[in-house]
C-alpha cells in the first residue's frame, strides 16, 4: 500500500469514528469515508480492530511529529509547546473524536494491542514532559523536583481533562489554566521553604 | 418496590456490570444476578438505560453516605478521608467495575440523563474538597488558595487516575501519592514567596 493510500485510510477512519463512534464503527463505514472498497480495506486489515491498532500508531506518530516541530530551547517554552500540541489538537478535533478515543480506552482491558499502544503514547507524553523538566532542573531554571513525578502528574491531569470533556462537556481550556498554574508553582526556582525537597 | 428489593437490583446491576461490561449488559443478565425475573425488572425499569440512571443515583447516594461518615473536624483530615473514600472504593471495586464506569462516561454525549448524574456526582466531589479547603483557609491552616480551583484540579486528577487504571492498568495508589504531595505543597501555609497569590 502506498503511503498516500495508508494516510487516506487513516483519515477515513478518523472521520468514520467522529461520525459513528467506536461501538458503531464498521469496515463498511470506514470504506464509505475513503476511496477504497470494503474488500480493499480487508485486504490490508483483517478486522476493524487491526485497522484501529494502525490508527493508534498513526495518532502516536502524528503526536511525535508535532512535538518534534516544537523544538524550543527554553524548558518552560517546551512545556508550553507540549501543552499547545495536546490542548489545541483536542480542541480542533472536537468532542466526537474525544468520545471515540475514550471508548477505545475503555476497550483496553479487552484488547492487549490497544493497551500496548496507549501505554506507548503515555510513555511518549511523559517522556517529553520529564525531559523538559530534567533539563530545566539541570540549568537551574526549575527547582529540584522529580521529573518523572511531575510528568506522571501532568499526564494524569491531561487524561482527566479528556474524560471531563466527554463525560461532563467541560471545556479543556479550564484544565489547561489549572495545569499552567500548577507548573508555575511547582517548577518556580528558589522557594526558600523547600530546600532539597522533591515536590510534585 | 421495597427499599430492600431496590437495593438488591442495584447490587445485581453492579455484579452484572463487572461480569459483562456496559456494552454487553442486558436486562436478562441483570435479572440473572438478582432475585427478580426479567419481567419484574421491566415492571420497575422500562429500559437498561433507565435502570442504569437509577444505578448512577445509587452510586452518588452511596458516595454521599460514605463522605458523611467521615466527619473529621480538621480540614486536612477531611481531605484525607475524602481521598480514602475515592481511592479505597476504586480499589475494592477493581478494574472490571472501573471499566464499566468508563464505558458509561463515554456514553454521556449520547445520553443527557447519564450526563446529568455524572455532573451531579462531580459537583458533589468538588463540593467536599472546596468546603474543606475553604474551611482550612478561613482557619489559617491553609494558605490563601482558591477553593474552587483546587477542587476542580483534584477532581480532574481523580478522573485521570480512573482512566489510567482502565486504559493503562496503572495502580491508582500511584496517583494518590502524587495528589497528596500536590495538596501538601499547595495548601501549606506561610509560603513567603507568594503573598496574596491564588495558586492551584
Protein topology:
The structure is a homodimer of 200-residue chains.
Chain A: H1 3-20, H2 27-33, H3 38-44, H4 48-69, H5 75-107, H6 112-139, H7 147-168, H8 172-187
Helix pairs in contact in A: 1-2, 1-5, 4-6, 5-6, 5-7, 5-8, 6-7, 7-8
Short description:
The structure is a homodimer of 200-residue chains. In chain A, 76% of the residues lie in helices and 0% in strands.
Task: Explain what the structure shows.
The structure is a homodimer of 200-residue chains. Chain A is an all-alpha fold. Chain A contains eight helices and no strands. Chain A has helices spanning 3-20, 27-33, 38-44, 48-69, 75-107, 112-139, 147-168, 172-187. In chain A, helix 4 (48-69) runs parallel beside helix 6 (112-139) and helix 5 (75-107) packs across helix 7. The radius of gyration of chain A is 19 Å and the shape is elongated. The first copy, chain A, starts with a helix and ends in a 13-residue tail after the last helix. The model of chain A is unreliable at 192-198 (pLDDT under 50). Chains A and B meet through helix 5, helix 6, helix 7 and helix 8 of A and helix 5, helix 6, helix 7 and helix 8 of B.
